[in-house]
């Protein structure tokens, strides 16, 4: 049996001799890391402004939490931020300085009951049979409870969120005034929640008019704009009631309209959240995790894009004769 | 004693020598196959382990055979076959730790991170005190981008190690560095060095941490320490040359880059570094050929090529 014991030992020891991960830096990575350090050394006033646009997408939009966390870990400057619908929620929290740990906790407990006290079987029955739209007022309380009764002007970076006036079809861009009502309007699903009556406007979810607010991020400050997108897989969604059909229609329409915005961005991180349904807020945390993974895969390329865009600022240091 | 009991006892006495003889036979076959493996005769070892499995050996020999057959297949650059072998072994022996770790490791090497995660988690469930299982899970999390989870698992692996390996401490340091937890990362890297981490990568990481913390002269000294251990590592030498440039020592940076180019005239990063140094010294005409060469290497170093092309265009647009 001695031999068998020896073999068993050998098996165990070989298990331990797992291959070391290869952390070889290739030449591009060395140059990128160096230029990234140089970029980070440049004062904010002497480099291009970086904007981030966070798309709508219901539960899928929580992927932005993972994306923003990876950008932060990598020292990405975020000079301004624009969000639509769930992107507005995540963006408002980020711009308020809410720590990521708190955002992840919110993701773990997310449900439509945070948005509306009526989003239950009874509420949906009254929606279907009595034409009574649900109230999204609770969303406003949720925002205020988590970040305080802030205004846009009080945020640590410029922030904008989009909504649509259901009477005129105009895109409404919020950049000032009370934050909570703006964020509520931005994710106020038409046909389900009552339009938000605000300053003579009837406001619904911004995803219908501007699902990926790249233009808004540019308008705010962004010379180089990163778009964080959480596209859906419409074929995989279970369409089994009126609400799901309605949500899917809005989701598709918003995404189709966003093609131009995407083309206008400088860099796109598309989190692969296609397996998650727009309305399944219980999967928000999962979406965030997927967003984090997607951003981690793409962050090196994002740095390269921003370095190339900012090369003039970086090269100032290496222009002795200028 | 009843008649049945007597029969059973007699049968056992009769079977025992046969059983012992089968064990001996299995052991002999396993020893032979292991010798082939250890001699590097992997194709023959694979066949021998396969034959052993077909002979329905004892459970222990069977487990070892699956494990080593997979290892031999890995050595033969057949990860696809090895995965199949480890999978079958894992199905037969779902509580076998080395098989679970081997499968997780192979998935990790194949960049199939989700599969790796499943098997390393299985390994942790088999033995929550296994350093390898926690380390493998940590590495998987790190590669996917879940750095906080990776940090937790590396921490667990270190806690479970009697004397933590320097390489494990280095991995923790790298994970902390990636999260910009620079003070903790520096402490972990120092522990790695104190644990015998005479490896250029420990010094290089220490250098990067210190550079990020603004201690740039110290960081350059750390790269010197890395180069003392690996004088032929041009990647480290060029990283140092770039940092010298950033700290205003363009002449020294240029000399270092030229030193690399003397041995390796096509080195893209060396051309790029030399170009930047000459640019910083106001010698743009001399910088241009370096940037031109680097810009031509778009297949092997697309980023450096793109930056070089842009610098060339920029310099051409506003000549001195």
List the helices and strands and how they pair.
The complex is a heterodimer of chains A (322) and B (320).
Chain A: H1 2-16, H2 27-41, E1 50-54, H3 63-73, E2 80-84, H4 86-96, H5 100-108, H6 121-129, H7 137-147, E3 159-165, E4 171-174, H8 179-186, E5 196-198, E6 201-205, H9 214-220, E7 224-229, H10 242-257, H11 259-264, E8 267-270, H12 284-309, H13 311-315
Parallel strand pairs in A: 1-2, 1-7, 2-3, 7-8
Antiparallel strand pairs in A: 3-4, 3-6, 5-6
Helix pairs in contact in A: 2-12, 3-12, 4-8, 5-12, 7-8
Chain B: H1 3-38, H2 42-54, H3 59-75, H4 79-92, H5 97-109, H6 113-126, H7 131-144, H8 147-160, H9 166-178, H10 182-194, H11 200-212, H12 216-229, H13 234-246, H14 250-263, H15 268-280, H16 284-295, H17 302-317
Helix pairs in contact in B: 1-2, 1-3, 2-3, 3-4, 3-5, 4-5, 5-6, 5-7, 6-7, 7-8, 8-9, 9-10, 9-11, 10-11, 11-12, 12-13, 13-14, 13-15, 14-15, 15-16, 16-17
Description:
The complex is a heterodimer of chains A (322) and B (320). With 322 residues, chain A is α/β, with parallel strands linked by helices. Chain A contains 13 helices and eight strands. The model of chain A is unreliable at 9-17 (pLDDT under 50). The longest helix of chain B has 36 residues, at 3-38. Chain B is built from 17 helices and no strands. Chain B has 320 residues and is mainly alpha-helical. Chain B is elongated, with a radius of gyration of 28 Å. In chain B, helix 1 runs antiparallel to helix 2, helix 3 (59-75) packs antiparallel against helix 4 (79-92) and helix 3 (59-75) packs parallel to helix 5 (97-109). Classes of the chains: A alpha/beta (322), B mainly alpha (320). At the A-B interface, helix 1, helix 2, helix 12 and helix 13 of A face helix 1, helix 3, helix 5, helix 7 and helix 9 of B.
